[in-house]
Q: What sequence folds into this?
C-alpha cells in the first residue's frame, strides 16, 4: 500500500518515463502548493517508494542520477503496458491518508 506522497511521486515519474526530474520538479508535482518541502525530503520519500516497489523482489525501477534527480526506468512503464489485461478490468490502488 502506497502513501499519498509515494503515489504522487510515482504518478509524476510515470508521466515522463526515462526523463530525469529534479527534486524541485518532484516537489512541485507531488506535494500540495502551500507545503514547504526540503529537497532532502524527496530523497527520503523516493527511498520509501523504492522499498515498496521492490518488496516482491522486483528490480529497482527508479534510477538516481547524482546531482540531477530521479527517473522511472522506461522499461518499467513499457512492461506494464505490455502486461496490461486486454479486457476492461479496472485495477485499483489503496492509498494511506
A:
Amino acid at each position: 500500500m502506497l502513501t499519498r506522497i509515494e503515489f504522487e511521486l510515482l504518478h509524476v515519474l510515470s508521466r515522463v518515463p526515462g526523463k530525469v526530474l529534479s527534486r524541485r520538479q518532484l516537489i512541485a508535482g507531488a506535494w500540495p502548493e502551500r507545503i514547504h518541502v526540503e529537497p532532502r525530503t524527496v530523497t527520503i520519500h523516493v527511498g520509501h517508494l523504492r522499498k515498496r516497489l521492490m518488496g516482491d523482489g522486483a528490480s529497482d525501477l527508479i534510477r538516481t542520477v547524482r546531482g540531477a534527480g530521479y527517473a522511472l526506468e522506461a522499461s518499467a512503464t513499457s512492461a506494464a503496458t505490455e502486461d496490461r489485461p486486454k479486457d476492461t478490468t479496472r485495477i485499483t490502488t489503496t492509498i494511506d491518508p
User: Anything to note?
Assistant: The chain has a mean pLDDT of 83. Helices lie at 4-15, 23-30, 39-53, 74-82. The first helix runs from residue 4 to 15.
